[in-house]
């Protein structure tokens, strides 16, 4: 907003005591201990001072009134606004009977630091969920000398996120690192006894560990939006300018759900790139300027020392044809639906990925 010429006072309000920080390292470098909070801060204190922000940390907003243009924080502080932007993110999904001592999630820095303390070399970790987050954390834990078992209800890892060839190759890498992948099975019972969590599977097998990471996805944090009477459907509903059902309230990032022309339906997109793109769109709308063109959505993950980059979206309701292309250091997968390029995957192939994204952008439908 400042870069677009907005001069009015801006307040940045957070429920966390930490200054704003990067989220991707939470399941990787911060969890491993290879970095610390000081190194993952998004901006230095001097930058925040230059932006002239009112910063309220550790004091979440508990009431929002769009009609009155006012909000109240947990400490009782009241602020008035012309525009408000909700960037409340998402909260980790939980499982019945699996909570309490030894059960972890990774959604914020404190979560990551708590799990790091539990990952003692020679110990064991059960990871529930074989998606990006679960596999990144599993990879990190294995490097720390922890025995890791991943439980995934689907018949492959990263289900619905990547192509079958990429899923299979990463599965081989994780197994090669000593990680046990248990697919296509449901946990029938969780029991905590003797300082251990015991998981009994539907086929009779059982696994136990002192620590369990639940990584089965996240739900949009819509509590404040719902309190304010905003339209919510699996996320805070937004239009093309990131406006909610209240014209002076915007929503961006993991908490927001908007129409995706490439899939012809509303979707909530969890990615750094999407959060940054929507931040630019909302800022432009507030500043009264035209937003930048919408870019192809991109995603990335780091597992077992390999960098996986993805762009575009595949409609899970339609057939998909995958073409595998080996590169000098990794591989690429081009994904086609109705003979049109809709998504690409690249492993350790950044230059090839950039060229593929350019082709993908050219193949995208122009939204009405």
UniProtKB/TrEMBL annotation:
Q: Please name the Gene3D superfamilies in this protein's record.
A: 3.30.390.30, FAD/NAD(P)-binding domain
Limits of the FAD/NAD(P)-binding domain:
9-279
Instruction: Recite the UniProt keywords alphabetically.
Output: FAD, Flavoprotein, Oxidoreductase
The Reductase C-terminal domain sits at 299-365
Q: Which GO terms describe its cellular component?
A: cytoplasm
CC cofactor: FAD
* Record bears the keyword Oxidoreductase: yes
Q: Which domain of life is it from?
A: Bacteria
Fetch the InterPro entries from UniProt: FAD-oxidoreductase/Apoptosis, FAD/NAD-bd_sf, FAD/NAD-binding_dom, FAD/NAD-linked_Rdtase_dimer_sf, Reductase_C
Q: Entry's SUPFAM superfamilies?
A: FAD/NAD(P)-binding domain, FAD/NAD-linked reductases, dimerisation (C-terminal) domain
GO molecular function, one example? oxidoreductase activity, acting on NAD(P)H
Protein name, please? Pyridine nucleotide-disulfide oxidoreductase
- Native species of this protein? Bordetella flabilis
Q: What is the lineage of its organism?
A: Bacteria, Pseudomonadati, Pseudomonadota, Betaproteobacteria, Burkholderiales
């Amino acid at each position: 907003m400042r870069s677009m010429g907005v001069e009015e006072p801006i307040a940045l309000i957070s429920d966390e005591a930490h200054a704003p920080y990067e989220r991707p390292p939470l399941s990787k470098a911060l969890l491993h201990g290879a970095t610390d909070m000081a190194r993952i801060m998004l901006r230095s204190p001097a930058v925040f001072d230059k932006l002239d922000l009112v910063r309220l940390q550790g004091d979440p907003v508990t009431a929002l009134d769009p009609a009155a243009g006012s909000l109240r924080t947990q400490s009782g502080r009241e602020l008035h606004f012309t525009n408000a932007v909700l960037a409340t993110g998402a909260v980790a999904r939980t499982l019945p009977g699996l909570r309490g001592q030894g059960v972890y999630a990774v959604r914020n820095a404190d979560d990551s630091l708590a799990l790091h303390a539990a990952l003692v070399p020679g110990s064991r970790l059960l990871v529930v969920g074989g998606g990006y987050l679960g596999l990144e954390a599993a990879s990190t834990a294995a490097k720390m000398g922890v025995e890791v078992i991943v439980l995934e209800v689907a018949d492959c890892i990263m289900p619905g996120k990547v192509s079958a060839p990429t899923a299979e190759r990463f599965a081989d890498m994780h197994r090669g690192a000593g990680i046990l992948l248990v697919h296509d099975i449901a946990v029938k019972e969780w029991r905590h006894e003797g300082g251990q969590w015991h998981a009994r599977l539907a086929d009779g097998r059982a696994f136990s560990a002192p620590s369990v990471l639940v990584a089965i996805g996240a739900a949009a944090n819509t509590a404040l939006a719902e309190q304010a009477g905003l339209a919510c459907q699996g996320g805070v509903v937004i239009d093309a300018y990131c406006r909610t059902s209240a014209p002076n309230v915007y929503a961006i990032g993991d908490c927001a759900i908007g129409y995706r022309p490439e899939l012809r339906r509303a979707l909530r997109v969890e990615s750094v790139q999407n959060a940054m793109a929507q931040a630019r769109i909302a800022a432009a709308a507030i500043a009264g300027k035209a937003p930048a063109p919408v870019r192809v959505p991109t995603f990335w993950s780091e597992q077992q020392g390999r960098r996986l980059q993805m762009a575009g979206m595949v409609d899970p309701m339609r057939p998909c044809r995958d073409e595998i292309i080996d590169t000098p250091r990794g591989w690429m997968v081009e994904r086609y639906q109705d003979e049109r390029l809709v998504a690409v995957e690249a492993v350790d192939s950044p230059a090839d990925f950039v060229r593929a994204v350019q082709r993908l952008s050219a193949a995208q439908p122009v939204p009405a």
